[in-house]
Write a structure and sequence with these properties.
CATH architecture: 2-Layer Sandwich
Structural class: alpha+beta
Shape: globular
Mean pLDDT: 90
Low-confidence stretches: none
């Protein structure tokens, strides 16, 4: 694999985001979208009652994901771990992480909320302040090769500093052995595959990418095109 540029940090600008204009794109199932896209619905396998057996994205985001997958060489694929989340699932994930922090000794106060929302967005029904995954414009994923999933330095949903996209870029040179260089290269590869087709990366999580939602809009200085989809009757529409 060629040496890729270092992933760029997210802008720290806090300029107001223009009001969203819901574009009405439907959700698309990803399991049958393309040969180089596989799904492993993480929260379904973790036993969450409101999780689904497939992963879904808005049509526009799914199209960009397919473009990213097409850039992979033979034998490699994107593995989607999560996409659109119904409100009930977002709430369940938030509450479980909250309880895990309390069990670690955190007090139920503002500092806990700050740590929580660094990794799991606050569930919201406000169309102008939606959780990224509830819009259908956020995707969590990794890359698989002929020998399995590429090493990325942490598991999915590892809520620690090592999960930050640039963590291995910032290590002192004396701490970078072959393993660290391999992880750094793999993260760079995923980052460039996704950002070069139009996604933005959430810098605290190497696996999280956005399109069309409020996170994406802030980075692109654009109006969001996806609002919340709180729940769907898949038996009727999908």
């Amino acid at each position: 694999m060629i040496d890729l540029p270092i992933p760029q940090p997210m802008s720290d600008q806090e300029a107001p985001i223009p009001a969203s204009a819901e574009c009405g794109e439907p959700l698309v199932a990803l399991s049958s979208l393309a040969d180089k896209i596989r799904v492993y619905p993480y929260y379904y396998h973790q036993g969450y009652s409101s999780a689904m057996q497939d992963c879904y994205l808005r049509a526009g985001a799914a199209q960009l994901l397919q473009q990213a997958a097409e850039r992979l060489p033979a034998g490699f694929s994107l593995v989607v771990l999560d996409g659109w989340r119904p409100y009930d699932l977002q709430t369940a994930i938030y509450e479980q992480f909250k309880q895990s922090l309390i069990a670690q000794g955190w007090s139920d106060d503002a500092s806990l909320v700050a740590e929580l929302t660094k990794y799991v967005a606050l569930p919201s029904t406000d169309p102008e302040k939606p959780s990224p995954h509830i819009t259908g414009g956020a995707v969590d994923l990794t890359i698989a090769g002929p020998d399995g999933w590429l090493e990325m330095g942490t598991d999915f949903d590892d809520f620690s500093p090592r999960a930050a996209t640039r963590f291995y870029e910032m290590l002192p040179e004396q701490e970078c052995g072959r393993r660290e260089e391999r992880i750094r290269s793999n993260r760079r590869w995923l980052y460039h595959l996704m950002t070069e087709v139009g996604f933005t990366n959430y810098p605290e999580e190497w696996w999280h990418y956005d399109y069309g939602n409020h996170h994406w809009a802030r980075e692109k200085n654009a109006a969001p095109i996806y609002q919340s989809i709180l729940s769907i009757d898949f038996s009727e529409k999908y």
